[in-house]
Amino acid sequence: MTLTQLEIFSLVAELRGFTLAAHRLGISQSAVSHAMKSLEQELGVELLRRHQSSVELSDIGEQLLLRARAMLGLANTLRQEAADARGMKTGTLRIGSFGPTSSIKLLPTILRRYQEAHPGIEVHIDEGPDRQVTQWLEERRIDIGFVVLPEERFDTFALIEDQMVALLPMGHPLAARSALNLKDLCDSPFVLTEAGSSELVSRLFMAARLQPNIRYRCSQLLSTLDTVSRGDGITLVAEGSLPDEATPRYVKKPLLPAVQRQVGLAVLDRRQASPATLAFIELAMRMNHG
To answer: CA 95, 197, 108, 70: dihedral to nearest 10 degrees?
Structure first.
């Protein structure tokens, strides 16, 4: 069994096809096919079910994929520790990011400083909703992810704290109030943003045994803001994720009691994290804790 075979297996599983994997790796399709056949023969199990137009993992294939990714992650750490001894000249860092807070407010400044300090490290960024980032971490598709804390499954590092605020259309009956509670937000049509703090919002209402009247689900915060400013609904978002608008198109109200939101970085296991990952954490912490 070789790392190359595991790399090919991981890519075929991710892209669900031999041709796409071959194209990405810059090798022939028959080389991919041969590598998979050899690996299956050596392990004595069928890892992939081949269909005419695609490939899917068998149950044991799904199980072994996590092991393969763990081995590839460790091999990457090993390479990077060697590179670190030579001055961390090369390596790869895969980052998962969600919503405007991490993608617009946190990541660009950290990344700029990081790439100045470590120009030889190739950085890959994947963006998705917060729950997608945690899934990528568990599946070892990324080395590090921005997450909403607390997050018990991972080793985490807090970066910033902001608070949840209610957004209302101009002229909404509740706009005259100085602060709102969760119960106030249950009568009007509610817009839920799938990116960012959707899990936190759902948990808050559930813990209070309340049910918002969810009329819209938006994958991006900007669509949520448009829906609110049109007067079609109200929402609950993290203050730090809001764009700086010269003339806001909606009314912002604090919650009573106040609800804090913490955003931080997460890794699957800090003891197995590569030097490139640890350097990113160290820089992010330094920049956000003065």
So the answer is: -10
